[in-house]
Amino acid sequence: MSSRDEIRKPARALPFWLSLGMIPLAILGAVAGGWTTLLLPVYGWFSVTVLDAILGRNEDNPDPETPEQDLFWYRLITLIWFPVQFLTIFSMIWWVTHSDHLGTPETIALFFGVGVISGTIGIVYSHELFHQRNRLERWLGDLLLSSVLYSHFRSEHMLVHHPHVGTPRDTATARYNEGFHRYFWRQLTQGPGSAWRAEVAMLKRVGRGPLHPKNPFWRYAGLQLAMLTLAWALGGATGVTLFMFQALVAVWQLELTNYVEHYGLTRAHLGEGKYEHVLPRHSWNASHTASNWLLINLQRHSDHHYKPDRRFPLLQTYGPDEAPQLPLGYPAMTTLAMIPPLWRRRMNPRVRDWRRKHYPEITDWKPYNRGTLPMPAGVV
Fold this sequence. Notes:
It holds the Pfam family FA_desaturase. It is found in: Cell inner membrane. The protein is an all-alpha fold. It has one domain (3-370). Helix content is 61%, strand content 1%. It contains 15 helices and two strands. The chain has helices at residues 3-7, 10-13, 22-32, 39-55, 72-97, 104-130, 135-146, 152-164, 180-205, 216-262, 289-294, 301-306, 330-337, 340-358, 366-370, and strands at residues 269-271, 274-275. Helix 3 packs parallel to helix 5 (72-97), helix 4 (39-55) packs across helix 6 and helix 5 (72-97) crosses helix 10.
């Protein structure tokens, strides 16, 4: 049987539906309270890391020419996720604000877990969806981002991160020796403005002003306002507070992932604002089996940058000769990133080895470390 015949089987797609296991855990936490409110982060981070250790790595590469109709069971989980997540978030807001059996610590823990759902899963699925050409999928991606109040991420990711990864223009490329907490603040304060400038520049190229109806920031604002309004209608000020808390947790997880994906990996400056082409070596990769199931192959990140609209079941993995490898999957590495001294101890030697291997001619890395190299030519 060919690999194409194998990939179309529902059983092959089933492990990528691991995310649905979070929903009954959220319901259990809301109803039972107590220690059960901690099960969501345990499921999303700890259990997947344990499974990675048991199952090892998956370095098989599917046929990238597999037709889209053979991927139905893979795509379906991303297509149904917005209604699943929407109902989870807002039913939890209604439940907590209309019952009194959960104390404040339990409520905080529960909505931290809801943020794990909307961040670890929702934003990752949104990323898969808004990279596609199908209008429905892109709308679903926008809806997922609006449910965590981070709609600008689509513009920043598509217009800035992909073309300018590894250069000073890309705020999502973490600098060598930059701790996560500093990076996170930089992303929160610089990301929205960066996305706005990129969209305005796009509009200007076709003779439109920044306030033109085609500016997607109008759509972003409307969707986010609708989400906040619904949270208020269901739970008042408490509902809005809980909604914003889960959104913050989700965004924190997104930026932890962004931090890990390109930490210290910069493209060589060729002079006069020109940079080398993006190559597989400019993304950290992890072929760990279980975390790639949960994160729908996001850890095959080099291939995503090579072929951004390639659907997740077809993403290719690269060996250590072509792309740098993480020692652990994203859930474990993002946990490590929260403790900068431990992160630097584990990752800085790997960055230095990467530099010696690929760029022996560069003797002064200070401008790369500080992000002081010239902006890419032609960038606003």
